[in-house]
Amino acid sequence: MLTQFSLSEAYRNGLSEWNWNVLFTDLNSSSNTKKYKKTAKIHSKCGILTDSTAKKRNMEGFFMAEAKFKRPELTDRDLIDFYFKKYPSRSCDRTFANVYLWARFYEVEFAQYNNVLLFRDNSAGYGYAFPAGEDEDVKAAIEDIMKWEKEKGVPFCLYGVTKENFAKLEAWFPGKFDITYHRDEADYVYESEKLATLSGKKLHGKRNHVNKFKALHGDNWSYETIAEDSLEECFQMALKWRNLNGCEDDEEKNSEMCVTLNSLRLYKELNLIGGLLRVGDEIVAFTIGEAVNDDTFVVHIEKAYADIEGAYTMINQQFVEHEIAGKYKYTNREDDVGEEGLRKAKLSYKPVFMVEKGVVTLKEDSEKECAKDDI
Prior knowledge:
- By secondary structure, the chain is α+β, with helices and mostly antiparallel strands.
- It contains 14 helices and 13 strands.
């Protein structure tokens, strides 16, 4: 269990160096995180779940002389934001905060290469994200990636590929690729106005939760936009939430809490927007997110005390009402990581669509794997 630790201490100890061992598992550690569990499933289809693949893909000097890959740092925000804003997506993966905070777990590096932004995931040979750039430059970059992978004897693999991305691949390279979509990684997207008002029969139950919360607490509750003077309280609430929810015994939860605490630690630097819920003077819930494009806002983090009935529903509704509705048509609440309870909760809010994301491989590589299986 964590001892008392202040946000100012975390900021001093962790801003220049990410190694935050004084609190919990080193952020550079990535074993057994939720992404590793998902990649194992994906790679079993791709036939690339090997340490040697990762080593081959990361061979310096062997390929990509022009592309200098590095781990994202705060100083890279303007560059990455430029590409994400100029070539927008509704995927939660296309925000700087998500890239920066999770790169330590996913072993993600990026490079600016021939007018496109490339992301490479070195964990177990996972491959490349769909590049960000002008169509002609993206097509050329994908051709280069295919060439590099062939030279190294590594199967070609693109991850996080949306249906819109794959449509472009099909137009550029007809019949050349296969895609496998993974339900666990699909983002839930909602109409912001409906999340704010909870109108209609389908959300009647959610309105009841909100009304019950208001009835239970009367005038003794309040919503606030997270500001500099409330970050410390949110940080302490997050530490308490961590202790109450067994995060030390669950590496996935611990990884997520590591990201949560660092979101608060670097709240200003990452240009995040958040809201909190109080009962009396105590913070009982908070949430944090950022815009992914001009019409969609992504909610990255949401924490509430389970013993405060309706707190999760209330912070969700209040945050959208005060910070999102009227500014962004859609609210992306990210994926469910395959957790049954989380999936049920996200479906209960009635998403208007999902941002499906898949893994793309070359058909010729799939045929080779099938031929091996037939031997």
